[in-house]
Amino acid sequence: MKAVLDFCLIFLTLQTPGVLSLSTHVAIIYPQDPVLLMGSNLTASCWVHPDLGVHASSLFWTLNGQQLPTSLYRVLSPTNLSVTLAGLNASRQTSGDNLVCHNHKGHILAGSCLYVGMPPEKPVNLTCWSRNTKDLTCSWAPGGRGETNISTQYTLKYKLRWYGKEKECEDYTHTQPYSCSITRDLHLFTPYEIWVEASNQLGRATSDVITLDILDVVTTDPPSGVTVSRVGQLEDQLSVRWEAPPALKDFLFQAKYQIRYRLEDSQDWKVMDDVGNQTSCRLAGLRPGTVYFVQVRCNPVGIYGSRKAGIWSEWSHPTAASTPHSERLMSGSCDSKSSGDSNSTLRRELKQFFGWVRKHAYGCSSMSMKLYDQWRVLMQKSHKARNQVLQGDKS
């Protein structure tokens, strides 16, 4: 990312009109706008024009608006006052620190910007991805502590591995900091060499060079058309369906999908990794009468025979649906003993089959889910029959 150079501007004004014309320098600070290594020392001098009629001993200095102690001053001549700053701290902002010379009334005579910082360290964590093979975006992190405290420019450079000229990335408008997108003249089936150069007025550094083929780093848009619906009256299941990313419909690849879901009042997502390449899935073992949020993402694996794992897309927008309410929760009974016996029997039956379900029916296996559906319908019918018998005994 090309850092924008900030300018430290100090407007010099003569507060006593008529002494000198506005085009005449009333005072000068030397050195002007120095770039200094953090921890270094600086001696600056404020030279006042003799026609101003001001003695150097009446002047004073400020740094970022704070007056500096006179113990740091030295009168070098009737028109020259110096100040010595030891062990300079890093600049508060990349636009520099304001060192200003004032007359005895506090009026500004001259100013200088101090740029105090560090040379850049080698950029790290350089990674790249291609959205639907239409571009190549790379991001990185500054090396070391990251902050140089002065304006630092980062340039992404690249070239084809076996031929071609070195080029610079031009599109630094990506929303992610320290990133750049290459949008023109992309070559498939040809490796690229890519690196980042960091530079400022105190030094420069270069990242490690990475080599990649665009087909190995393809990502895509999130799956579209995500729908979540109930599975009949099965109280602990939801059906999820989606469409494959349309941007890759003409490419030879096999997609992988992941699903994640969470309760409405929770921020903890549960991820299903074994969805495979199908575009539908059944979520089981859910809470009855509960709202769930569901998201899907895609990994385009093996585009044109690439052997790399691919890069996951962003998650789709959350889609919400609720499971049916449990009949066991909605139907009440005042006979605590009968209700307890019924629940105890149901729990035993649930325990017997859930052991098998958890082992074999997790995920999106259509065969195991059909068996699971049959068992759930059978149990619900059995529970209804029990309720009818219990209500008949009471009457």
Tell me the layout of helices and strands.
Layout: E1 27-30, E2 35-37, E3 42-48, E4 60-63, E5 66-67, E6 73-77, E7 80-85, E8 97-102, E9 108-117, E10 124-131, E11 136-141, E12 153-160, E13 167-168, E14 179-182, E15 192-200, E16 203-206, E17 210-212, E18 218-219, E19 224-230, E20 238-243, E21 254-263, E22 270-276, E23 280-283, E24 291-301, E25 319-322, H1 327-330, H2 336-360, H3 366-394
Helix pairs in contact: 2-3
| Separation of the first and last Cα atoms | 80 Å
Query: Based on the structure given, which CATH architecture of the largest domain is correct?
Result: Sandwich
SS class: alpha+beta
Task: Give the tally of β-strands.
Answer: 25
Helix content: 10-25%
Strand content: 35-45%
What's the CATH H-level homologous superfamily of the largest domain?
A: Immunoglobulins
Overall shape: it is elongated
Could you say how many structural domains there are in total? 3
| Order of secondary-structure elements | EEEEEEEEEEEEEEEEEEEEEEEEEHHH
Contiguous uncertain segments of 5+ residues: 1-23, 329-343
- CATH domain topology of the largest domain: Immunoglobulin-like
Counted by DSSP, the helix tally is 3
Rg is 36 Å
Mean residue pLDDT:
80
The CATH class of the largest domain is identified as: Mainly Beta
Biased composition (Low complexity): 331-343
InterPro entries: FN3_dom, FN3_sf, Growth/epo_recpt_lig-bind, Ig-like_dom_sf, Ig-like_fold, IgC2-like_lig-bd
Pfam family, one: EpoR_lig-bind
Region (Disordered): 322-343
